[in-house]
TrEMBL record:
Residues 91-178 form the GHMP kinase N-terminal domain. Keywords: ATP-binding, Carbohydrate metabolism, Cytoplasm, Galactose metabolism, Kinase, Magnesium, Metal-binding, Nucleotide-binding, Transferase. GO terms for cellular component: cytosol. This is Galactokinase. It comes from Bacteroides graminisolvens DSM 19988 = JCM 15093. Belongs to the GHMP kinase family. GalK subfamily. Residues 283-348 form the GHMP kinase C-terminal domain. GO terms for biological process: galactose metabolic process.
Length: 383
């Protein structure tokens, strides 16, 4: 992503004056899917793709915003009734409103922004956009809001202005990202810890199936319900169990006859996945990337066979990775489409990508998209 490009568009649209330039990254999640709403751990990292925005206060009570990628310009006020119609502008408006609710004296500004986070590939372009503006407005208007609250501003924007009831992981990773580190976030206590991720001799690559399944939200709600049903059954014997994170496989087996086979499978996946995150953290402490890869394959198997949120295309890409000797591969994100995330030895990279593209196209009639990612820094000012 090019600062000079964003600046040239800003100058063109706003009379030649320059402001400050800010950036926030998209994210990957190495392991830990469907653990967040079960009180478990997630393990994200910021990536070298994200959003860049130039911003300059304009002395009015109006925001003048230009989306470089969409070639679209919107103006809006800062009161609740001023919400813009354009969906992309609602993210910026929502961040302004959430900052104002937290006592920040946000005034009008001019802004132009662009991104290189691929849309719909599960790398959280919206969180990158929210984090960029939350970080920028906090600095420009002397907000004194801490980084955790900035992540919550982005989350609240999704909830209150964009109609998405997301967790905190995406915004958290975007704000807190650190080059060469992944972050283990405890979704219950919100405590976090950095772990080294410097896979010398390996590359991290996403292979995008370019599949979107319409049933994702209803299927997601159903799985969440399964987890809650299992917890309620376990709680009768173990009153201290609030989430599946508190349960063991032995506790789950005690109630096997009281819940459906489907609910049992869903809970089994989650309990095992929470443990896998901890195992991966231990492996990274000693630089054991082979164990990391093995756990990624175990996650894919669990998401495909127990949680049943994979799809034919993702299973195909996972099998292809296995056949090519890729160290680790799994579906990334909630499932029902999107990408696999792959940990690939340098010397296998070219042959794996060539085979994945060729065989996927032969079977499904289109090519998957490929994105190399490097773990990078979080929200910051560039200029």
């Amino acid at each position: 992503m090019d600062i000079e490009f964003v600046r040239s568009r800003f100058i063109k649209h706003f009379d030649g004056e320059t402001g400050n330039v800010y950036a926030s990254p998209g994210r990957i999640n190495l392991i830990g899917e469907h653990t967040d709403y079960n009180g478990g751990f997630v393990f994200p990292g910021a990536i070298d793709k994200g959003m860049i925005a130039e911003i300059k206060p304009n002395g009015t009570d109006k925001v003048r915003a230009y989306s470089i990628d969409l070639k679209d310009y919107v103006e809006f006020g800062l009161n609740e009734e001023d919400a813009p119609k354009a969906s992309w502008a609602r993210y910026i408006f929502g961040v302004c409103r959430e900052m104002i609710k937290r006592g920040v004296a946000v005034k009008g500004f001019n802004t132009a922004f662009a991104g290189d986070v691929p849309l719909g590939a599960g790398m959280s372009s919206s969180a990158a956009l929210e984090s960029t503006y939350a970080f920028a407005l906090n600095e420009l208007f002397n907000g004194n809001i801490d980084k955790f609250e900035l992540a919550k501003v982005g989350q609240a924007t999704e909830h209150n202005y964009c109609g998405v009831k997301c967790g905190i992981m995406d915004q958290f990773a975007s704000v807190f990202g650190k080059a060469g580190s992944l972050i283990r976030l405890d979704c219950r206590s919100l405590e976090y810890e950095y772990f080294p991720f410097k896979p010398e001799g390996y590359r991290l690559v996403l292979v995008d199936s370019v599949v979107k399944h319409e049933l994702a939200s209803s299927a997601y709600n159903k799985r969440r319900q399964s987890c809650e049903t299992a917890v309620a059954a376990i709680k009768k014997n173990h009153p201290n169990v609030e989430f599946l994170r508190d349960a063991t496989m032995d506790m789950l087996k005690e109630v096997k006859s009281e819940i459906t086979a489907e609910d049992f499978m869903r809970a089994e996946y989650v309990i095992e996945e929470i443990q896998r995150v901890l195992d991966v953290c231990d492996a990274l402490q000693v630089g054991d990337y082979e164990t990391v890869g093995q756990k990624m394959y175990e996650t894919h198997h669990g998401m495909s066979k127990l949680y049943e949120v994979s799809c034919e295309e993702l299973d195909f890409l996972n099998d292809c990775a296995k056949e090519c000797g890729v160290t680790g591969s799994r579906v990334m994100g909630g499932g029902f489409g999107g990408c696999t995330i792959n940990l690939v030895k340098d010397e296998l990279y070219d042959s794996f990508i060539a085979k994945a593209k060729e065989t996927f196209k032969a079977k499904f009639g289109r090519s998957p998209k490929v994105y190399d990612v490097v773990i990078s820094d979080g929200s910051r000012r560039l200029v």
